[in-house]
Amino acid sequence: MDYRNYDIEDFLQDEFFVSWVINPNKESDHFWNQWISTYPEKHTVVEQAKELVKSIKYKEEQRLSEAEYTQVFESVLKANRERNNRSFIWQLKHTMRLAATIALLIAAAIVLVLNPVSSGDVQSVKMLVAKTEPGQKRTIKLSDGTTVMLNAGSSLVYPELFSDSSRMVTLFGEAFFDVEKDPSRPFEIESNNLTTRVLGTSFNVRSYPEEATVSVAVMTGRVEVKGETGKSEILLPEDMGIFDVETGAIEKSHFDETAWIGWTKGILVFDNQTLPEIFKELENWYGVKIEVQKGMKLEGRYSGQYLNKSLEVILEGISYTSHFKYSINQKTILIYDEK
User: Fold this and answer.
1) What is the rounded CA–CA span in Å between residue 2 and residue 134?
2) 321 close to 328: Cβ distance less than 8 angstroms
3) pLDDT at 43
């Protein structure tokens, strides 16, 4: 099998790949690790496909058989290709923004297999997707009155109407939540193997698929964060929980409000960050592509705060202290050595 031209959709349909993600063994680990080493340019696509497969979570005692699981995958993929609804356009070849949508559809299909209900009941549950592209921010209001502000390059999957007993959403990216208080219905956010559970509070969740950690910063109220291993922490105002996706460890500390929540007020903050980290943040904030001259070394760190400043103003400041030059061609920025 030649995987060099595979995109995310192709990997999701490949039985060998899905089997490796769900139930790896010595042989499959050796093959895929060797393949990724040989073709490092495919690493991001493979990781995104793995993240999507692993985002399907359900109780161990209700695990589907391999045949049922494959059937669910094939049904969801087929249904999404045939949909004409604009909310479900198949764009996985170009972006990971719809990963949360597909994960929710698969999870819903699993629930239906395990707990069959009438077709009338299924149609009454409508899932919605709110998303932002790089350079965009968006505020939405959920059916319970909860307000969610999405940062750039993020998506939130949620039901049009919450049930009488629970409120659950799935987040890919970063969002600030102001949760309407309802003691009878906990509010839960699923984000990259971490569950954030609250009754009524305001807090920020950062969970981009390509990042190694998930962070939860609490402004008001009381928040519980819990990993798949069962380890949990209670967070109070000014507390932050940093969840290590790989190890499942949760580190608790305090946080600087401007640094972590300033984005909701148009404040872009760099705190002793490397240039690659800063360029990645700028790409997402302004919706641009930053290219670095081949062979150029990006050294040093930079700190600074910018309130509603243009990209050019920020690049001027960083380039002066970090000794590089740049050129802007529409949505592409070239970074090159000043020598």
Assistant:
1) 32
2) no
3) 81
String of DSSP letters for 21-83: HHS--HHHHHHHHHHHHH-GGGHHHHHHHHHHHHT----GGGPPPHHHHHHHHHHHHHHHHH-
Pick the CATH number of 126-264 from 3.30.300.30, 3.40.50.620, 2.60.120.1440, 1.10.10.10: 2.60.120.1440
What's the whole-model pTM score? 0.67
* Mean pLDDT (whole number) for 8-23: 79
Token readout for 316 is 């001027």
Contact 160, 142 (CB under 8 A): no
| pLDDT given at position 192 | 85
- CATH architecture under which domain 266-337 falls: 3-Layer(bab) Sandwich (3.55)
Which of 91, 80, 89, 87 has the alpha carbon at shortest distance from 48?
A: 91
Average pLDDT in the chain: 80
Bridge partners for 289 per DSSP: 332
Q: Where in the chain is the domain with CATH 2.60.120.1440?
A: 126-264
Residue 40 banded pLDDT, cuts 50, 70, 90: confident
